[in-house]
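Appendix B. One record, verbatim.
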Amino acid sequence: MPPFFSALTKTQWAAAVSTLVLTVGVLIEYRELLPKLIKLAGRILTLRSSSFERCVWWRLAKHSLGPILVALGIGGELVFEAESFREDNRAAIDSNKQIIVAQGDAGTAQLKLAQLQLKMLAIFGPRHLDEAAKDRIAGKLKPLGRVKVDVYAFAVGNPFSESESTESKALAIELVEALGRARLDAVGWLEDKCHESGASNVVLVVPSDDATFRSQATAIIAALEPEVGTYPEVADFGPSCDSSVALTPHKVSRSDDANIRILVGRKIPTLPTAETLGIDIPKQ
């Protein structure tokens, strides 16, 4: 079937068939008269007709003018309808193509928006170590052996934010789990009634000048930095707090006396830039 007919809708098929039926009906109705008119017209045009034949043709044509016009009109309507259907179908196809392109553009825009939202969440949202991140940290720290490490979160940060305090405690517990997978002796603690404002991001503290402890703390920084915002140097001291309780009391069998301390403070978001957000800025 030609592409035109295969593209017709049901309504267009009905209109085309109805017009065709009218055309065929007129031809059947005048099946005896029309051949005579055509034959006589041919003789007249070729200059082979007699005066009698021309008279007969004229009388037949005069009495058959109405049916002839009807037949021509219906036939013309069929042709024009076919062309109209063709144009309608072409316009519909073009419109559908534009809709598909617009839908594709909208889908791309929604995907970019979702990617941007995820990047914004990574910058301003809570910190979290998934199972893969814990395994990566543990893999890097296993050579340290049974090093004793205390991980501290702060019950009340300054300035106070309940969500930030909850987020810091959750991250501290995840860090303890990651260090435990590396066979380190890690325990989590919740500090309260502190005399300083606490800490920002993750900070490694070694109160002594012991080179071994500081080297081990440096190795922990190297393992944590790719996974969570960590201060790049080993600090000498942290906040002084009057109260310290275990984050997971049922798992604690010692006091907080480790020479290596990890402070989990409030998150300081990275400054959003076009580069960090993946936004292409046209060059001026």
